[in-house]
Each structure stands twice: as structure tokens, then as C-alpha cells.
Amino acid sequence: MSASQLEATAEAVAKADVELDVEAEAETLKPIPKVRLYNKIHIVGFDANARFAAQALSSVDRLPPVQLLTHNIQSMKTWREEGKAVTVYNIKGVPLTTRAVPCPEYIGRQFAQRWERPPILHNIIVSTVTGAVIPSLAALSHSIDRRTTVCLVTPGLGLMEQLNETLFTDPASRPNYVLCHSDHRFSRVSSYQYSIKHIPGKLLLHAVARDDEDVDLDRRTSEGLGRQHTNHMMKLLSKSGDLAAIPLCWEVFLRQKLPGMVFMSLADSLSVILGCRFGQIRDSSHIMEFWDRLLEETLLIIESLPEFQKYPDLLGFFTRESFPKKLKRKLELQKPQYSQWISMIRKAKMPPVDVTNGYFVRRAQELGMRHALNSQVIALVKGRQAGRYKELQMDIPLGLQPYFQDYDKVGGGQPRDDPILDNEIDF
After folding, report:
1. Residues 216 and 130 in one domain
2. Residue range(s) defining the domain that contains residue 152
3. Of the candidates 248, 270, 293, which is a domain's last residue?
4. Are 51 and 193 found together in one domain?
5. Domain containing 348 — which CATH number?
């Protein structure tokens, strides 16, 4: 969809979803108090989206300097070496802009063990590997309450629910959330950490309404206060034309987010399980048979989502025969490549399977639907990660004598340092 189509669809859905309560009298409703809003933005993480956001927002006049927060000490060491700035190149490697950013602040154990209560962080963008999100926000938890807005830039969905279940368990004091889907595309520039090649895209945003109430606030007031915080975060992001931020209602946001999640839940998970290129998935009839069955299960879950039941045009994108063909065409185009998930597994990092396949399992459980294949995929991916972690802990490759033409790239008898797979992972 183009930007104009997105905005038109969002407006149509929003209008269709409005119900007027003719019995409510405006004069009986108390006005929502105005909250004090702050412009300082902190960014948790150091991946390409995080660095690009820091660079883009640093160009906005009258905004305080954006502060990167990192749990990777290496990013602090290289900041001075690479000019204390983020440089953006186009896809041909021509430099476009260089903008200074403050030195990243470390948020490891030392931050979590501060004796004094740190100040509240009002606007937090989270863009890092999924497994680092909960530990990072746990270190910042004393600086987070209902005055905080957390913008989650993740490859999947369900991380907000995990945060609420494990970290922010009190509904009245948990932060506000803005979910984000970035279709900006990036690649590395040589071995530099602070430089990125960029193909412009959009930053699609959805503000999640609060659903809590306590002795001091009724639900309407709580939602109204939370809306002020999330709207402010989206306005801050919209101030940068480079980010191209677009607010969307939930149904349209979900329609834009799910296609990439479906592809990852198929291609990336199978690539990790088999330790192979995308092309080896596409060329095997047996693997593609499993692909079709896994896709069928996932599409049945999507077709049953209550969000789409009133919007057949949005649901139709997934139910038409063209959608499975598009996924296979995308797999075909990426045949020579390896999944980035394999790079993560080789370093014993958990890929985002819990926010891709795991999201579909969660929704299936809510709907009372089958999810056996997605659950099996999650178990196998986590099994590969656990095996690789044990292998690295032992510091002994488990496959010292690999089989002839052993194509499994996850670990074992493969070389310890593969230039294709073992590029530094951005955190």
C-alpha cells in the first residue's frame, strides 16, 4: 500500500468503528486533566533502526539530544573511533548525512543497582534483539511508570504482552505503549558500527489504549491520560521527515505487520531448524510440503482473528490465492541467502521466534484453535539455540568430523568464523 492508501484505509476503518452513545450527555463527563509532557527521547538498543532513529531525530530543531542506551560495551568504545556520529549512505554507498549523537549510556547491572531513584524516562524507543528487551527494561524499571511511553520497534508482535506479564505486572503503573512496524531497509557499511546504508521506508505506528483503572482513576480518565502520552510520542516521531511516521488504527496496522511475520515464521524458522540457505528450503519438495501445512495452520488463525471480521477487504489480502504465491516468490528471490536468525543462533542468541510463531500460538490459544505445527517449530528453534549455547559453553565443536557436504550452518563441524554468517550482531 502507498502512504495515501494507508491513510485512506485507516480513516475509513476508524469511521466505521465509531459508535455514538446518544444517551451520554457531554456535560456529565468530567474533563480529562492535562498531563505534563516531555520531549526527551531515550533509545534502547543499537541495531540499524535504533541508530537511524537517533540520527533522524537529532536533526529536529528544539528537540533535546536523543540518548542511546546500550547493553553492548563495544558500541561505547567505537563511538569515539567513528567520529561520535551516525553516517547514513544510500544503497550505492554514497554518504548522505552525518549527524553527531551523544555517547551511548551503558545500562547493564551497574545501572540496575543504583541506590538513588533515577529520574523518570518519559519517551523510550526500544529497538534491539528480542531476547534483550526484557533484561534491558528491567534495568530501567525504576525509571518507568504510567508517565512513560514505550515504542516497541520489533519484527513481530506479542512482546508488549510478555513485558506486562513478566515485568510490568501492575496495570495501573505500567507504561503506555506504541507499537511500531518499520519497513525502512538497512545494510552494513564495511565493518563500521555507526554507519548504515539506507533504503527509505515508513514507520507505521499504533497507540495501544490503556485498559486499567484504580481507586484514583476511572477507565475513561486513565485512557484519556494515556492517550496524551502516546499521541505525544507519535508527534515527536512525526517531526522527523526521514522517519516518515504514520499513525494507524489497529486493524490496518495488523494488516501491514502480519505478512512479514508470516514469512519469518516460515522461512527463517525452517532455515534455522535445517541450518541451511533459503534456496535449500525452496528446492526440497519434502520441506515445501511442511511449509504448506504450516502456512495453512497460520492462515486459519489469521482468518479467525476478531479484528478482521468486520473488515473483509483487509482480511482478503491473506485469503486470496495470491498471498501464498507471494511468499514463495519472496523465498525464491532470497535463495542464495542465509537467514539472519542463523547468525543469531551461531552466537547462541535467541531469534525472535516468540514474537512471530509465538504470536500465532498465543492468538490460537485465545481462539481455541489448533497450533501444533507452530508450537513444534518454536520448540525446534529453541532446541537449536540451547544446543548451540551448550556447544559454545563447552568450547568444543560437537561435529569435529562433519559429514561430506555437511550444509548445516548453525554450528558443529562448521568453521568457527564464517565471514558470511558471523558479522557482528547489532544489539
Report:
1. yes
2. 31-248
3. 248
4. yes
5. 1.10.1040.10
Residue type at 96?
A: L
Domain count, the chain: 2
Confidence (pTM): 0.88
Does a structural domain hold residue 196?
yes
pLDDT tens-digit series, residues 275-310:
999 999 999 999 999 999 999 999 999 999 999 999
Q: How confident is the model at residue 21 (pLDDT cuts 50, 70, 90)?
A: very low
Domain edge (last residue) among 192, 216, 248: 248
